[in-house]
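Cross-check.
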Amino acid sequence: MPVRLRKFIGTILIVVLVFAYALLANTIAVATLGNAPWWGQLLYFFLTGLLWVLPAMVIIKWMAGPKQQ
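Predicted model, tokenized:
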């Protein structure tokens, strides 16, 4: 697969990932954190704010393609 096509597909995947992840994380927060203390909400949003990076890293690695020798 050409690098340009791989990067285009990867970019679309990352945008979809961010929107879907934000929707899911906020839906869970609204459903479960309504009566949680402020520090519980802070911890939840801190962790979920960092967690999306893991699947994004996998997509970015795929976008880069196989290692050149």
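The two ends are 18 Å apart (CA to CA). The chain is about 80% helix and 0% strand. Passed to J.P. for a second look.
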